[in-house]
């Protein structure tokens, strides 16, 4: 075992050292401040970066070092998370508020410094404070380093497609109101493509994203779901695409005419302009996995659209419209989520670790909490209860006096406990809606309970959705790591039969897994990055009420596997 740890530490040192070869330093300044924009007939003040919505795209190569100076000129405290970036030995730059840092207060600044190591593809950055990521987000485009190539034919052009949500309201107020009433947040008013709602919405005829193509050329679309709380179907009329990567991990080529992308996920596809010269709508609409269930989950039923315009197309031609999937088309969604596989032997491919050190069975879902003081809690039965979220009957509470990472690094007691249960404290029929009549199951204690694991240990998690309050698909995001998605299915996980379904050869790798509605997913990862790492539902309305947890990964045996001290400008609480 000691030799294995030594070999891993040596390889980690070589990996970090290798990033200095043919790597560049990419430096940007982010000015976070108010921006007035017009959408859906309204002038709205939003929080944005560098006066743009979406924010600026970061274009880097694998191995580059990023230095991002964030100046908070907004009226709100804020942090920035670099979603999907490993942050190898740079956990101080990860960004989730009260997990790795305290927020940047209005009028203050913080500089994030980190390297892009062993990652290529599309990721994104976004605010990790309150609902601000609805407008504070942008693409991270990671190309191969110089003299390296893609594992597919070089595209003619690369095009970021950022899917989002729009509220005719201050998004901070949307969250504040939801917490004050003890309910879920108000539904968004529109979906957007690269910040534009499209012509199906009021006053939006000229607010539609347009992309012009040349017939016969192939384009790499880098699609990001930056929506706050919506899984989205994405289609282009009369065109198939070939998926080549998800969450900055290369996949075997997968041809499809429809994609479903959960909040926090990215998909890279090759689009060949092989249709007759003309115009073709692209659409994004909600995959509302709980909309057809006995306990319906409300959702925004609208559709955003942009348009692909071929060179030479007549401006008077009406674009063709794709057949939009039904909101509750779970078979189509499940097919897409489960049929993707990793490109074995491709750049940065990682084989599945076969020996597991830490096994966990974790329920994920919603529940209730005793109504806090000054909260009305009138809109959800039973009256007097507030909406809550939990994992294994623990509703996670963020620290308040010190970030989790600082408490770990400086060995400060009283900030967190390491007693997060590895299995559900109570066994029940997880996906049977009748459990909602069992009030003790609905109420989970609130505490800052985490899991501590040894450096370089292998963790396997069965993520089991529950039917508490309502059944829906939960996008679970893990900071600091990618994981192998070994299997996914419906109903209650059965270890006697479902372990036989594990793909141990070429499972897709992700940083965000969409746990099927009334179903389960199994993930596995190697905890080779010391620090404090958040795991949470990427529905902000669920994350903010406790559907989350965290891991602390202990330091390794060498200086090269030990988390360095915090930077001197780390914000104070």
UniProtKB/TrEMBL annotation:
Annotated Pfam families: Cu-oxidase, Cu-oxidase_2, Cu-oxidase_3
Recorded GO MF terms: copper ion binding; hydroquinone:oxygen oxidoreductase activity
One Gene Ontology biological process: lignin catabolic process
Cofactors required: Cu cation
Cofactor binding annotation: Binds 4 Cu cations per monomer.
EC number: 1.10.3.2
GO cellular component terms given for this protein: apoplast
Domain Plastocyanin-like, first and last residues per copy: 32-145, 158-313, 419-556
NCBIfam families registered for this protein in UniProt: laccase
Family statement: Belongs to the multicopper oxidase family.
Protein's name according to its UniProt entry: Laccase
Species annotation: Gossypium schwendimanii (Cotton)
């Amino acid at each position: 075992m000691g030799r294995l740890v030594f070999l891993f530490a040596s390889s980690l040192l070589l990996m970090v050292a290798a990033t200095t070869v043919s790597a560049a330093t990419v430096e940007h300044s982010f000015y976070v401040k108010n921006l007035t924009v017009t959408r859906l007939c309204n002038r709205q003040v939003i929080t944005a970066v560098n006066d743009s919505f979406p924010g600026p795209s970061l274009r880097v190569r694998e191995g580059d070092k990023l230095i991002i100076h964030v100046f908070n000129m907004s009226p709100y405290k804020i942090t920035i998370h670099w979603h999907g970036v490993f942050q190898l030995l740079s956990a101080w730059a990860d960004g989730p508020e009260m997990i790795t840092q305290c927020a940047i207060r209005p009028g203050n600044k913080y500089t994030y410094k980190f390297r892009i190591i062993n990652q290529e593809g599309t990721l994104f950055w976004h605010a990790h404070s309150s609902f601000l990521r609805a407008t504070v987000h942008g693409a991270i485009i990671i190309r191969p380093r110089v003299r390296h190539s893609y594992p597919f034919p070089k595209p003619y052009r690369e095009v970021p497609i950022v899917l989002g949500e729009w509220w005719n309201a201050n998004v901070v107020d949307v969250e504040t109101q939801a917490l004050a009433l003890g309910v879920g947040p108000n539904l968004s008013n529109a979906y957007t493509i690269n910040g534009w709602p499209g012509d199906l919405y009021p006053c939006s005829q000229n607010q539609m994203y347009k992309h012009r193509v040349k017939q016969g050329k192939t384009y790499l679309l880098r699609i990001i779901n930056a929506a706050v709380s919506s899984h989205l179907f994405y289609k282009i009329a009369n065109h198939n695409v070939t998926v080549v990567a998800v969450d900055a991990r290369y996949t075997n080529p997968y041809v499809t005419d429809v994609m479903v992308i959960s909040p926090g996920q990215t998909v890279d596809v090759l689009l060949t302009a092989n249709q007759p010269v003309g115009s073709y709508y692209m659409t994004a609409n909600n995959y509302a996995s709980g909309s057809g269930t006995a306990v319906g989950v409300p959702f925004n039923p609208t559709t955003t659209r942009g348009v692909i315009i071929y060179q030479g197309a007549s401006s008077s031609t009406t674009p063709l419209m794709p057949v939009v999937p039904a909101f509750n088309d779970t078979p189509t969604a499940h097919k897409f989520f489960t049929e993707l596989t990793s490109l074995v032997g491709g750049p940065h491919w990682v084989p599945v670790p076969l020996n597991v050190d830490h096994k966990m069975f974790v329920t994920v879902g919603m529940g209730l909490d005793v109504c806090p003081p000054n909260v009305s809690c009138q809109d959800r039965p039973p009256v007097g209860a507030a909406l809550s979220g939990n994992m294994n009957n623990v509703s996670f509470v963020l620290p308040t006096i010190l970030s989790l990472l600082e408490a770990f690094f400086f060995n400060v007691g009283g900030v967190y406990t390491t007693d997060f249960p590895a299995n559900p404290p109570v066994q029940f029929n997880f996906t049977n809606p009748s459990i909602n009549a069992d009030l003790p199951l609905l109420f989970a204690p609130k505490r800052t309970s985490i899991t501590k694991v040894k450096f370089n240990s292998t963790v396997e998690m069965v993520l089991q959705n529950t039917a508490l309050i309502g059944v829906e698909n939960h996008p679970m995001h893990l900071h600091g790591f990618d994981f192998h998605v070994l299997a996914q299915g419906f109903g209650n996980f059965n270890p006697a039969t479902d372990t036989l379904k594990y793909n141990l050869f070429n499972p897709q790798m992700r940083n965000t897994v969409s746990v099927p509605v009334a179903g389960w997913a199994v993930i596995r990862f190697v905890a080779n990055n010391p620090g404090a790492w958040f795991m949470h539902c990427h529905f902000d309305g669920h994350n903010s009420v406790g559907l989350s947890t965290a891991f602390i990964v202990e330091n390794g045996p060498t200086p090269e596997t030990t988390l360095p001290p915090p930077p001197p400008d780390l914000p104070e609480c």
